[in-house]
């Protein structure tokens, strides 16, 4: 994944657990990169190893860490100059979720080696929708829950999110039922 993701992970860990923890996590993960370059593409394995080491060292369940990181990602990208991409993607939570593939398509103009996930919305209503998540990468459903929560915060909406289908349990793809309070 692009260095932007690893940089966001670094910022997330340093903010909540301090710089020394990040150094220990990198050491434990055997990642010998002084500073990730946002626009450079790194093997996915590096990100997975960092997340694994962070969970072990900080004694956090992967699902909890990924979910909090997802929420942080929305904040981080909003502050790192990508806020206009959110604004361009829609003026309601439903619109942004419907336009997620288009948003990543625009990200791909800046990051040509991007391998983005894909999303489809069904049963779109005023008070919620069903979100389908497709990815070539395993194990990131909890991050998607955090990302949706982060978007909800951006729109000042309280959400109830329930995963109804799980790829980890053999489903074709992950499905989330999202209700807006
Ligand atoms: C302006 C905001 C955003 C930017 C700049 C952005 C950019 C990126 C980048 C650079 C990656 C790494 C992929 C790669 O390097 O191949 C990524 C992955 C991902 N993005 Fe976004 N993204 C944004 C918003 C969102 C939102 C709102 C969601 C909501 C669900 C989302 C869902 C994901 C997921 C789940 C992945 C993990 C990769 C995978 O599932 O295969 N992104 N995004």
Provide a short characterization of the protein structure.
This protein has 181 residues and is of the alpha+beta class. 55% of the residues lie in helices and 16% in strands. A hairpin with a 2-residue loop joins strand 1 and strand 2.
Task: Give your account of this protein's structure.
This protein is an alpha+beta fold and 181 residues long. It has 2 domains: 3-60; 82-180, Alpha-Beta Complex (H-NOX domain), CATH 3.90.1520. Helix content is 55%, strand content 16%. The protein has 7 helices and 4 strands; from the N terminus they run ααααααββαββ. It has a 4-stranded antiparallel sheet. A hairpin with an 8-residue loop joins strand 3 and strand 4. Helix 1 crosses helix 2 and helix 4 crosses helix 7. The model has no long low-confidence stretch (mean pLDDT 97). Residues 1-2, 4-5, 74, 77, 82, 85-86, 100, 103-104, 107, 111, 114-117, 135, 137, 140, 143-144, 147, 151 line the site of protoporphyrin IX containing FE.
Sum up the structure in keywords:
4 strands; alpha+beta; four-stranded antiparallel β-sheet; 181 residues; 16% strand; globular; binds protoporphyrin IX containing FE
């Amino acid at each position: 994944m692009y260095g932007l993701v690893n940089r966001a992970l670094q910022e997330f860990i340093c903010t909540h657990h301090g710089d020394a923890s990040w150094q220990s996590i990198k050491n434990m993960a055997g990642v010998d990169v002084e500073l990730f370059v946002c626009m450079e593409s790194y093997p996915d394995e590096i990100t997975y190893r960092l997340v694994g080491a962070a969970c072990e060292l900080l004694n956090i369940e992967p699902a909890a860490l990924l979910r909090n990181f997802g929420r942080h990602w929305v904040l981080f990208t909003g502050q790192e100059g990508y806020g206009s991409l959110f604004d361009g993607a829609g003026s309601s939570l439903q619109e942004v979720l419907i336009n997620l593939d288009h948003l990543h398509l625009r990200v791909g103009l800046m990051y040509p080696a991007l391998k983005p996930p894909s999303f489809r919305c069904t049963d779109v209503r005023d008070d919620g929708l069903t979100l389908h998540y497709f990815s070539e990468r395993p194990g990131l459903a909890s991050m998607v829950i955090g990302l949706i929560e982060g978007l909800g915060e951006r729109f000042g909406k309280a959400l109830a999110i329930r995963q109804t289908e799980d790829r980890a349990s053999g489903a074709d793809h992950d499905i989330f039922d999202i209700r807006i309070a």
